[in-house]
């Protein structure tokens, strides 16, 4: 707790991460070309689907809304760094020993680093994705939802960090964790609503999805941005806060247990 | 003085030597694969976890397409079964490449970091030696997944199995030699690791979406620059029913990629400059 009493140091950690990320913007833009590719594929897929259905709206989503929904979800998911790679490497190389003896909280340190990295990457992805969206389907549906996007995105990335960290902490017990992260990411793609909005799911899965934390990550911000339902913002933010607190508590317990068990070689 | 008989016997010895060379090469290749597998199996739990998670990873795509086809039963003539067979052909081809020729996707990195030195010093065909010297454990999950999908959704009769085996062969050839071509760019353009990866990623991504959704320029690209169309079209043009023009086109593309890949690699090798990295292979 002593380490949390000085938030200024975390601000500096965030600033340093931002600076180092800004040094690699060009590299990240090249890697973001995948975003263009995937948006093009989804445009083709949904264009064919809408023309096959013969309707301008599917479950309340027009083609334009669907495309902008995908711009937001893909921009968020592709901005997320791999926590498993990071923690796993720290454990394998022994660097984790240095992290643990520093006067900073291990989890908070990674959270600040993660959020700073995500901020730069998300802005770049959003700019690139918006350019593609504008070019392919025209401007996004303008509404109050866009105003709430930054706050819901912050909440979404926080829950994503919590769940990602929970998976990454398993590297204190097992050697390879990236496979588990693969599976987590794919759950986010489907049940989390990255590939299509929850409204298009079969009823049972849709109901199940509403009881899981995955919907709070990309579905909440993207759905709100393209089709805001009045009166839902407060419950969405509350749910994000609830899941962040709940998963955060589990992380704290797992971390305390894992750090006692950890054997570090090298460093 | 050599008699005709003696000449004949010399020729025979030479032929036997060639046959022996091929046999030795085959023995070397299988020994390399066995060692790669033994290395991967060293950490049994990690091995099973990696393979299992890759299968689970692919199953998620079945869930996505399952949800899609429950809502929209047909996609421009493509059914759920076609999409599953497309996944079987793509995951199977990718799996075989990554298991048996695992360095195909890492060629650009090996070239720019000077890691070809160790292969050049060995009396084996360089490209083959490079390609087979690595095995991706997670790709075993992809191949197992492809086989499960074929058994679950495909035609498991003798003819159906032969068609699927042909689809896997063509898909593997396209994957390997497209990656070799993309990796070889490093011989001329310097560090093209990012570009090579993007090209491979484009091939893999396009190969896992039905060709039927692409129109116009996008469709042309899929059958030329990024030949993913030949992989993703397998379910409707080879596995469901044999479309001969498609089969000829896919075979010719695989053959051209194979020849171009080998030619470009050995041309590029003459431009290769060694690094100062010390490497050792047993």
TrEMBL record, chain A:
Transmembrane domains' residue ranges: 21-46, 118-137, 149-174, 233-255
Keywords: Membrane, Transmembrane, Transmembrane helix
Alphabetical list of InterPro entries matching this protein: ABC-2_transporter-like (IPR010390)
Domain of life the protein comes from: Bacteria
Name of the molecule in the record: ABC transporter permease
Naturally occurring in which organism (per UniProt): Paenibacillus glycanilyticus
TrEMBL record, chain B:
Organism, scientific name: Paenibacillus glycanilyticus
Superkingdom of origin: Bacteria
UniProtKB keywords: Membrane, Transmembrane, Transmembrane helix
This protein's name: ABC-2 type transport system permease protein
InterPro entries: ABC-2_transporter-like
Transmembrane segments: 43-64, 85-106, 126-153, 165-189, 220-240, 246-266
Coiled-coil boundaries: none
